């Protein structure tokens, strides 16, 4: 009998996914794309693909109910799923929700959660079409799956970026991470002295980025109207450094990102300084931004260069040139993903 025991921590999240993936191959011709992108791609008809993605949120790991309003949590749980459909250049259509709830919860609490789910369904025009409900002995677990659609010639993968493509990112980066740091700090203060009121005024933006992030379907609709199909795309869930490296690894290319082009919100910047954190490190590695990170051909530059909510942060280069960060002083250093270890 083989008694070898391998710790999950030795593989990490991505190593574990690769490990699982290596044991499976696709058997059905309808399975166009399996493990490895933001959503799976399934044959639908002569012109369209179905997209399918799932994401789980676990109390104590992904959220803390002591400072997370339930309507925000409901909205976020849907938005993070929609974001994966957006990252395929798709349009979300339906969701199913699996809930494991402890008896600590009241009907009113469930109603509050579903109020946020409803708001997200209305915002992203998706239908809640099913799910599953069970009891939990260890906190709230939310599992949502989303179905979307895209045209055969308009599906965007992670593995198709080409040297000279321009790297673009929507919105700003690092705010969700800094919002979380502020919430955690205020929680600690409160636990030591419950008479203390949390100091959150003026930080509404970064708190909202953490507690109630949206998905950038607005950008997908705009890109479609502008006739821009990215060459590769991913949504920023782990941090832009980690996520661009997914595109690079899967596309077998390298990248150069410019430190001074990384978009950082002013409140996020000031909060980082106050917490003695490096704003650029927060922006590159923070995660949970749910912005879109994509590459475009040089020929689309003119169409996108003046877009107020899209930053051009670098370019794709040959793999041999590596993954680089060009610092403000012009030095080229290795771009590394600090990412997050779940185990
Ligand atoms: P994202 O952050 O975009 O949701 P993940 O990093 O969670 O993507 O997952 C990357 C890929 O690995 C996806 O294709 C996802 O479906 C797949 N995946 C993740 N966990 C598992 C698992 N336990 N079994 C099979 N595939 C998985
Ligand atoms: Mg994703």
From TrEMBL:
Residues that, per the record, bind Mg(2+) 1: 54-55, 132
Binding site for Mg(2+) 2: 55, 84
Miscellaneous notes: Reaction mechanism of ThiL seems to utilize a direct, inline transfer of the gamma-phosphate of ATP to TMP rather than a phosphorylated enzyme intermediate.
PurM-like N-terminal domain location: 36-149
Swiss-Prot/TrEMBL keywords: ATP-binding, Kinase, Magnesium, Metal-binding, Nucleotide-binding, Thiamine biosynthesis, Transferase
Protein name from the UniProt record: Thiamine-monophosphate kinase
Catalytic activity: thiamine phosphate + ATP = thiamine diphosphate + ADP
Amino-acid positions noted as binding Mg(2+) 5 in the UniProt annotation, renumbered to this chain: 238
Binding site for substrate: 62, 288, 340
Binding residues annotated for Mg(2+) 3, in chain numbering: 38, 84, 235
Enzyme class: transferase
Residue numbers binding ATP: 114, 131-132, 158, 237
Coiled-coil intervals: none
One Pfam family, short name: AIRS
Enzyme Commission number(s) of this protein: 2.7.4.16
PANTHER family found in the cross-reference section: THIAMINE-MONOPHOSPHATE KINASE
Function, as annotated: Catalyzes the ATP-dependent phosphorylation of thiamine-monophosphate (TMP) to form thiamine-pyrophosphate (TPP), the active form of vitamin B1.
Pathway(s) per entry: Cofactor biosynthesis; thiamine diphosphate biosynthesis; thiamine diphosphate from thiamine phosphate: step 1/1
CDD domains reported in the protein's UniProt record: ThiL
Similarity section: Belongs to the thiamine-monophosphate kinase family.
Chain residues that bind Mg(2+) 4: 38, 53, 84
InterPro entries linked: PurM-like_C_sf (IPR036676), PurM-like_N (IPR016188), PurM-like_N_sf (IPR036921), ThiL-like (IPR006283)
HAMAP family listed in its UniProt record: TMP_kinase
């Amino acid at each position: 009998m083989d008694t070898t025991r391998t710790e999950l921590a030795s593989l990490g999240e991505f190593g574990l996914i690769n490990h699982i993936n290596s044991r499976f191959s696709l058997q059905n011709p309808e399975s166009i794309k399996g493990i490895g992108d933001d959503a799976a791609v399934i044959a639908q008809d002569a012109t369209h693909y179905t997209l399918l993605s799932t994401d789980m949120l676990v109390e104590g790991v992904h959220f803390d109910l002591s400072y997370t309003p339930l309507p925000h949590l409901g909205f976020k749980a849907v938005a993070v799923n929609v974001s994966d459909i957006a990252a395929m250049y798709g349009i979300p259509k339906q969701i199913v929700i699996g809930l494991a709830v402890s008896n600590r919860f009241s009907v009113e609490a469930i109603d509050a959660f579903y109020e946020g789910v409803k708001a997200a369904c209305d915002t992203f025009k998706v239908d809640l079409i099913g799910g599953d409900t069970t009891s939990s002995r260890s906190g709230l677990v939310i599992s949502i799956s989303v179905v979307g659609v895209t045209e055969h010639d308009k599906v965007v993968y992670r593995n198709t970026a080409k040297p000279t493509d321009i790297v673009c990112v929507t919105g700003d980066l690092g705010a969700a991470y800094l919002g979380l740091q502020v919430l955690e700090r205020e929680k600690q203060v409160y636990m030591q002295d419950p008479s203390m009121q949390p100091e959150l005024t003026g930080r509404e933006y970064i708190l909202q980025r953490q507690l109630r992030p949206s998905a950038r379907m607005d950008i997908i609709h705009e890109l479609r109207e502008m006739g821009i199909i990215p060459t590769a795309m991913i949504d920023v869930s782990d941090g832009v450094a980690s996520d661009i490296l997914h595109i690079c690894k899967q596309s077998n290319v390298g990248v150069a990102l410019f430190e001074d082009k990384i978009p950082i919100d002013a409140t996020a910047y000031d909060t980082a300084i106050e917490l003695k954190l490096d704003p650029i490190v927060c922006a590159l590695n923070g995660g949970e931004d749910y912005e879109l990170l994509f590459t475009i051909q040089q020929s689309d530059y003119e169409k996108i260069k003046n877009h107020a909510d899209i930053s051009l942060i670098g370019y794709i280069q040959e793999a041999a040139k590596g993954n680089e960060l060009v610092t403000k002083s012009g030095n080229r250093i290795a771009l590394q993903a600090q990412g997050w270890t779940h185990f």
